[in-house]
């Protein structure tokens, strides 16, 4: 699974929120938003392209993985590696220190109900 560090994630967010965009425009944006030198931007862009997250074809940068898909994969990997793939174990650990609001509980219940109706439950 492709990975990104915190600075790479900020750079990726620039792309995801504006794609498609010209690589020169991306470099200028990173200079303004992140205070990066052009060489840094091109290096990070190449790294993220090499990892299969983005592509730079003809000077136009687009994503190969959407933001939602990338973070879904990252979350799934975390639960798999840390909690043997058990979402209930993850939620138990997560709610040990952070209590869910009534709204969050309702959102989770609606998600569970929807998954049951769509046949995604096991």
TrEMBL record:
<keyword id="KW-0238">DNA-binding</keyword>
<keyword id="KW-0804">Transcription</keyword>
<dbReference type="InterPro" id="IPR036388">
    <property type="entry name" value="WH-like_DNA-bd_sf"/>
</dbReference>
<protein>
    <submittedName>
        <fullName>BlaI/MecI/CopY family transcriptional regulator</fullName>
    </submittedName>
</protein>
<dbReference type="InterPro" id="IPR005650">
    <property type="entry name" value="BlaI_family"/>
</dbReference>
<comment type="similarity">
    <text>Belongs to the BlaI transcriptional regulatory family.</text>
</comment>
<keyword id="KW-0805">Transcription regulation</keyword>
<dbReference type="GO" id="GO:0045892">
    <property type="term" value="P:negative regulation of DNA-templated transcription"/>
</dbReference>
<dbReference type="InterPro" id="IPR036390">
    <property type="entry name" value="WH_DNA-bd_sf"/>
</dbReference>
<dbReference type="Pfam" id="PF03965">
    <property type="entry name" value="Penicillinase_R"/>
</dbReference>
<dbReference type="GO" id="GO:0003677">
    <property type="term" value="F:DNA binding"/>
</dbReference>
